[in-house]
């Protein structure tokens, strides 16, 4: 796996490892969702909260089946890195998301869309990515990749189209343009 892909895998792993014990488990995925909701002042029982937690737990189930090689209910950093390196590439050569990853991102997108209009402006996008440890300049560059018509707003369809064209890494962590 390339150095950049290892760095992205480690960044995601560290964000998911909410208790800092060096392994991922179901409670980390739930806690990660709850922390994001808390950042937006939403509770886990709100409609957006339930959707995000359900998506995160579905992602955990998928990853536990595919990534947890020794089936001990925990994913090590090495297992996670190996899984990230095995993800299929988009047309851009960057990894594309599994349906479960895309469901989590979709739920996060809706949480970050504060007014619920189905659109996210640059400020909302920068806040969302900032909560995931992405510097504002990188998030702004990513937003520009997604906002191909330069109207100042992106929809989920804009996001998925840009993910196909540029890859999720470019949109979420390391814009290359």
How is the secondary structure organized here?
Layout lengths: L2 H14 L6 E2 L1 H14 L7 H20 L8 E2 H10 L12 H14 L6 E3 H9 L5 H11 L6 E3 H11 L1 H5 L5
Helix pairs in contact: 1-4, 2-3, 3-5, 6-7
Descriptive account of the structure:
The protein is mainly α. Helices cover 61% and strands 6% of the residues. Strands 1-2 form a two-stranded antiparallel sheet. The protein has a two-stranded antiparallel sheet with strand order 3-4. Helix 1 packs across helix 4 and helix 3 packs antiparallel against helix 5. The two termini are 22 Å apart.
Notable characteristics:
two-stranded antiparallel ribbon; 177 residues; mainly alpha
Secondary-structure element order, N to C: HEHHEHHEHHEHH
Total of helices: 9
The rounded distance between the terminal residues' Cα atoms is: 22 Å
Let me know the largest β-sheet.
2 strands, antiparallel
Radius of gyration: 16 Å
In the sheet with the most strands, the strands line up as: 1-2
Number of strands: 4
SSE-based structural type: mainly alpha
- The poorly predicted ranges are none
Global shape = globular
Mean pLDDT across the residues is 89
Strand content: 5-15%
- Share of helix among residues? 55-70%
């Amino acid at each position: 796996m390339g150095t950049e892909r290892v760095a992205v895998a480690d960044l995601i792993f560290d964000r998911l490892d909410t208790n800092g014990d060096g392994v991922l488990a179901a409670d980390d995925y739930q806690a990660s969702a709850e922390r994001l909701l808390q950042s937006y002042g939403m509770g886990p029982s709100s409609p957006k909260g339930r959707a995000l937690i359900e998506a995160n737990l579905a992602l955990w189930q998928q990853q536990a089946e595919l990534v947890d090689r020794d089936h001990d209910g925990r994913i090590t950093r090495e297992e996670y890195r190996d899984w990230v390196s095995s993800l299929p590439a988009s047309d851009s050569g960057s990894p594309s998301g599994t349906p479960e990853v895309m469901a989590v991102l979709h739920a996060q997108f809706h949480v970050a869309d504060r007014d619920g209009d189905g659109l996210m402006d640059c400020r909302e996008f920068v806040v969302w990515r900032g909560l995931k440890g992405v510097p504002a300049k990188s998030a702004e560059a990513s937003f520009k990749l997604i906002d191909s018509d330069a109207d100042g707003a992106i929809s989920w369809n804009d996001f998925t189209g840009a993910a196909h064209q540029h890859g999720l890494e470019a949109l979420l962590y390391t814009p290359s343009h």
